[in-house]
Structures are given as structure tokens and as C-alpha cells.
Write a structure and sequence with these properties.
Blueprint: H1 2-32, H2 40-76, H3 85-124, H4 127-133, H5 138-177, H6 181-191, H7 194-220, H8 225-257
């Protein structure tokens, strides 16, 4: 019984300590945004890394997401259900939930892992200590540019992803239930709500923040050696993926019910 209570205390202290370190890192990163004009070249470089170099991967996955949704929606359009309603179902499914979630999970595996491994390697090789010795704040120089870039790159990627998924959702319905373009557009117009677009972009914006902070947190706190960096990378992806689902729920709850 004593050992059990000690374990509860140990893990409770550990959890709250990590939450505190994570919160301080988040606060310092947002505070460093005030010095963003100094780091314009780094922001542009990170925007290219997060945005342009992820575009092909995002588009390929979006194609198959759209095809899968089109098949499933088309299968439901049986009996007395008008086929033109498939357009609205595809639109709202992709905009509100599937599009942002898919993008968030894809970028969690690519961006968060990359940030964690890069910063973890820099810590192991004492490059971060070298920055501090030159009076350069690692948060300002390494994390803040990535955060700013992600705030713009992830919503931009989501726009391309949503358009691609919606179009291939139509194509899939056209192949399965012979849905015409005019009927698909009728469904889009019937179901379109600009609020759905805002929700989708807000989710992408918050996902970008979570992905960068998760990678930075585990990268800066990684242990020495290849094993420590690998563990930090894995933990960053897990945390980013969990936060994507949590933020998706929170944004939907706030936008629809509060």
C-alpha cells in the first residue's frame, strides 16, 4: 500500500512538472513572436519546409480521403434519398472534421517528428548551449520562427487539401452512383455555411501551434544519445496527435454550442 501511494505521488509530481515546463515553453514562444521581424529569413525557410515541402504528401492523401468519403456517401444514397444531397454531405464532412483531422495527423508525423529530432540532435551535440553562450535565446531563434510559419502554412495546406478532397469526393460519387456535376453543385450550395470554413481554418491554426510546440518541447528535453533523440521524436508525434483530437473537439464545442 505504501509503495502504491508513493507511485501515485511520484507520477503526479512528474505529470504536473511536465505540464508546467510545457506551459512555460508555450508562453515564452508566444512572447518571442514580438521579435519576429528580426527572424524573417528563418520564418520564410520554415514556411517552405512546413508548407511547400509537405504539399505533395498532403495532396496525395487528400485524393484518397476524398475517394473514400465519396464511396461511403454514395453507398448511403439509396432508396428515397436524393443523390444531390451527396454534395452537401461530402462538403460538410470534409470541412468540419475529416479534412482538418487528416491534415493534423499527417503533419504531426512529419513536422512534429522533424522538429523534435532536429532540436534533440542540436541539444545532444551541445549546439543549443552554444547559442546560449552567444546570448541567443533558443526559443526566439529556433522555435518562434517555426511557430509563426506553422500558423500560416497549416491553414494554407488545409485549403488545398479541402479543395482536393471535395473534388475527388465528387469524382468518386460520379463513378459509383453516376452523380452529375450540376447535382453535386446543388448539394454544395444547399449545405454550404461559411461558418464551417471558419471552423476548419481555426482547427488548422490551432493544430499548427500544437504540432510545433509538441516537437519543440520533446526536442529541447530529449536525453543524450541516439536512443534519447529517437524516444523524443516518438513522444512528440504521440503528443501532437493527441492534441489534434483534443483541439478538434474543443474548437467544435466552442463554435457550435458556446
Amino acid at each position: 500500500m505504501k509503495k502504491f501511494i508513493e507511485n501515485i505521488g511520484f507520477y503526479s509530481i512528474r505529470i504536473f512538472t511536465n505540464i508546467g515546463i510545457f506551459s512555460i515553453l508555450t508562453f515564452n514562444t508566444f512572447r518571442a513572436i514580438l521579435k519576429a521581424p528580426v527572424y524573417i529569413p528563418q520564418i520564410v525557410e520554415q514556411f517552405i519546409y512546413i508548407g511547400r515541402r509537405s504539399l505533395v504528401l498532403v495532396l496525395v492523401i487528400s485524393v484518397f480521403v476524398g475517394l473514400a468519403i465519396g464511396v461511403e456517401v454514395g453507398f448511403q444514397m439509396t432508396g428515397f434519398t436524393p443523390h444531390w444531397m451527396a454534395g452537401g454531405l461530402i462538403l460538410r464532412t470534409i470541412l468540419i472534421d475529416i479534412g482538418p483531422l487528416t491534415l493534423g495527423l499527417v503533419l504531426s508525423g512529419r513536422i512534429s517528428a522533424g522538429i523534435a529530432s532536429e532540436l534533440g540532435t542540436m541539444k545532444v551535440t551541445e549546439q543549443i548551449d552554444a547559442l546560449r553562450s552567444f546570448a541567443i535565446d533558443p526559443v526566439e531563434y529556433l522555435i518562434s520562427p517555426r511557430l509563426i510559419a506553422a500558423m500560416f502554412a497549416v491553414p494554407t495546406l488545409l485549403i488545398f487539401s479541402n479543395f482536393t478532397s471535395i473534388f475527388f469526393g465528387y469524382y468518386s460519387c460520379h463513378m459509383t452512383i453516376s452523380l452529375s456535376w450540376s447535382a453535386f453543385v446543388k448539394g454544395l450550395r444547399f449545405s454550404f455555411d461559411f461558418k464551417d470554413v471558419i471552423i476548419s481554418l481555426i482547427k488548422a491554426f490551432t493544430f499548427g501551434i500544437a504540432i510545433v510546440i509538441s516537437g519543440a518541447y520533446y526536442g529541447l528535453n530529449s536525453q543524450r544519445g541516439a536512443k534519447g533523440v529517437g524516444k523524443a521524436t516518438t513522444q512528440a508525434v504521440v503528443l501532437a496527435s493527441i492534441m489534434v483530437f483534443i483541439l478538434s473537439y474543443v474548437v467544435s464545442l466552442v463554435m457550435f454550442y458556446i
